[in-house]
Each structure stands twice: as structure tokens, then as C-alpha cells.
Amino acid sequence: MKILAIETSCDDTSIAVLEGRGDKIKILSNIISSQVQLHAQYGGVYPFLARREHEKNLPAVLKKAAKQAKNPKIEAIAITKGPGLEPCLWTGINFAKTLAKELQAPLFPINHVEAHILANFIEKKLASLKLPAVCLIVSGGHTQLVLMEKFLNYKILGETRDDAAGECFDKAARILGLGYPGGPAIAKMAKNVRGRISNKLPRPMINQKNYDFSFSGLKTAILYEFKKQPPEIQKSPEYIKAMCAEIQRAIVEVLVFKTAKAVKDYGAKTVILGGGVASNDELRKQFKKSFNALMPSKKFCTDNAAMAAITAYFHLQKGEKTSKDVEAKADLTL
Ligand code: KG4
Ligand code: ZN
Q1: Which domains, from first to last, does the chain contain?
Q2: Is the pTM of this model over 0.85?
Q3: Ligand nearest to the CA of 302
Q4: Distance 196 CA to ligand 2 centre (A)
């Protein structure tokens, strides 16, 4: 079976083609057109600007993805339904609908959070998944701890009550003048740092007996810590680097601690990491050290259509039905 997938939930326009037969899965193409440079000027993603870019980019991305996959006959079109930025989701959906008519192929709606989880099986065999599993999805829009007792079956254990982990990286980077996206910028500055800032940042909700997160207080603490410094310290590379290291430490510590609690409470045999923040080296290192952890290679952590294609493949293999119509749902849950 050959599936074409379209992903436009945020600021990456991506189209992939997957070929699957039984447990043999091959990504024939996975083209991503990033809008990072455009949004970097504004320090974040503007949904209507992103929508315009998706509209502009989709035809060329499709051409490239189809060509690289050698123009195969497509049997289903996977399309991200949500969660995400509504104008961006609709652009992908409308494009998918037109293509579905042209190719006479049915549609299959995709949950973007589930796709971040299943991105793990693009390169790894399903046999590496021992259940029950605990999944941590950490991206610019989401921070969720999810229990998977059966394959493709999800129960949300906890989530962020305000900002997502990636959002916290992005906002912290903006405070420190490091540009967008903040996660990679902070991770780069935090490498090989020896010095520490004199005050430790808070580890929000780490001692609470639940699986929820909260990162907006951490952002405020970062702002206060930065504002109380004189201008010469604020501009000093040593201080910025020490701040980045402490910000990364605070976020990673909370993520590892809460995941460990879920693993212990539910007797999880595998921990699945997914989402853009899963490309953070320190988080990857700590997860490998602490758990039997699966994590996608970095190129499949951030948004891509290959993960939407594999999600459709697993569901269709299970016998689930395709759809005639798909509607965007910005706040779609698992
Ligand atoms: O999954 P993703 O591409 O888009 C959403 O679905 O939100 O995640 C993007 C987020 C951004 O907040 C970005 O700063 C963060 O992932 N990110 C990172 C790293 N690379 C991307 N955060 C920390 N460390 C990184 N290396
Ligand atoms: Zn995402």
C-alpha cells in the first residue's frame, strides 16, 4: 500500500510518500519546506502568514515528493486534522481534498500528537515496543504524558496547564535575545557550560503528586532573573550561557522526573519520546540513562509528513475506514 501524507499544522509544509507491506515500511520521500527564516523576523509563528506560505509551498513540495517517490499510484491520502493552527490545518485539508479528487484516493485524518508518538516506528521495528508504554510528547504546542496499554490506544495521564515545554524554550530565548526557534538556540548555548547562575531556577510542579506540567512560571522566573541583572551582565556571553544551561536543566529535570513517576506507577516497559523538543541532546541523554527509551532520530522529531503517513498506515492496517470529508480541529485530543 502506498500512502501520501500532508502536514501543515504549524510552520512546516511537508509531504511524504510511504510504501508499506506488512511490517515492511519504507519512506519513499519526505519533503519539508521550513518557514523558520520568515517567522524568525517576528520571533514566533504568525498563523495567517504561515497559511499564506503553506498555500505558496504546497504545489512545489508535492511535485518534489511525488518525483522522489517515482510517481507511484497512491491508495490513501493522510492529512493532519489537528491539533494545530486552524488556518494552517485548513490549507492542508483543502489541498488534500482537491488532490483526493484528482487521484481518486480516499482521505485519512491524522492526529498530530499521535503522529509524533508513532514517528518512533519510521526507523525502528514495532517489536521494540514493549507494553505498557509511557509516551512523553514535547513540542512547541504540547507537553503530554500518555499511557499506551495497547498499541494505538491512548490515555492522557497529564499535560501542561499553561505553556508547552517548546514554548518555554522559545519564550526564554526571546527574553535572552537568542531568536526563533528558541529550543535549538538555547541547546547550542548550553553546550559545555561550566559556570552556573547564582540562583537556581524553579522546577515547576516537580513535587506534586500528578503528571501535569506548568512552564509559564518558569518563564516568569527567567524574566525576573534576567531583568535584575545590570546591562553589562545581561550582555555577557558567560552569563547567557550559564542561563541557557540552567533553563535547559530545569526543563529536562521536570520532564524526566514526571516521566519516571508515570513509569513507576504504571509499570511501563518502554518510554516513547516524541515532538520537536525530543531533538534536545540533553533530554535524549537523560532519557537513555533513565529508561528503556525509544526516540526518533532528530529529523523525525520536528514536524514532518512521514510521521503522518506511518500513523495512517498503522490505522489502515488495523482495518479502520478512510473518510470522504475531513474538518480541521485546532484542539483535537488523543
Ligand atoms: O514538533 P514541533 O516541530 O512543532 C510543534 O508541533 O509544535 O516542535 C517545535 C518546538 C519548538 O518550540 C522548538 O523550539 C523546539 O521544538 N525544539 C527544541 C529543539 N529543537 C526544536 N527544543 C529544545 N531543544 C532542541 N534541540
Ligand atoms: Zn509537531
Answers
A1: 2-120+300-317 (3.30.420.40), 129-295 (3.30.420.40)
A2: yes
A3: 1
A4: 32
